[in-house]
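Agenda item 2: nicotinamide-adenine-dinucleotide complex prediction
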Amino acid sequence: MGVANDRSIAWHVSKALLEAEAHIIFTYRKERSLAKLTKLLQDVDQSKYEIVQCDVNNDESMTEAFTTIGEKHKVIHGLVHSVAFAHAEDLKNRFVETSRDGYAFAQDTSAYSLIKATNLVRPYMTEGGSIITMSYLGAERVLDGYNVMGVAKAALEASVRYLAADIGPSNIRVNAISAGAIKTLAAKGVPSFNTILNKIEESAPLRRNVTPQEVANTSVFLLSALSSGITGELIHVDGGYNILGI
Ligand code: NAD
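Presented output:
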């Protein structure tokens, strides 16, 4: 869930999964994303993937998407939740000025959507499963311009733990990756993004920004049996930036 274009983290995860010979079902929200996806997939064997519409702000759309996918395939092994959105004004204004609507919208799109998707996918994870989501350091620290999204990511990370505890007995694992800053469409909405990229390059233990491929590799690890003992966890793929006291 969450390929908007070739920069999307979800697209890099998809490429790594295709290399691992996974069969992938892509979900998209807007027609624009469908057009981009179709173009990105033009050289991929059509038997390897499907595309289904799913707007995570809409229960009906989510239910229809997961029912369509589940009824056709019967068994699903993994889910990649790589979706987030907040209104631009809630990232630009002071955090204290966050509107009720803006707060609810960011939470609904970026955190609640994981809970709903997990509930809809779990009946089809009959052979065990692995669910992953993408978070960011703004959940743990105050980062300039991340504001309402930081609070949504904090809820997302807490949801990962509650979901993991709830559905672990069904052998379904739920984990989050806290990705370093990566230039994508979503990142454009964060006003201080370029400053963040420079700061990470100067001070992260690895002295560079991470690549989307590195996030994709960890995603494949978390989706595969190699990580079978890990659930409810947050793995930072950020060149070590989070360990610094700055
Ligand atoms: P992106 O813009 O490529 O992906 C965000 C996706 O969310 C898009 O595909 C968009 O269509 C989808 N989306 C938004 N609202 C939706 C809705 N109502 N229904 C369905 N889909 C919806 O950007 P990205 O950076 O690849 O973001 C993917 C995830 O990674 C997000 O959760 C983001 O917060 C997280 N993340 C990004 C970074 C970064 O620096 N880029 C760092 C850490 C975490």
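Discussion summary: The chain has a mean pLDDT of 97.
Owner for follow-up: CH.
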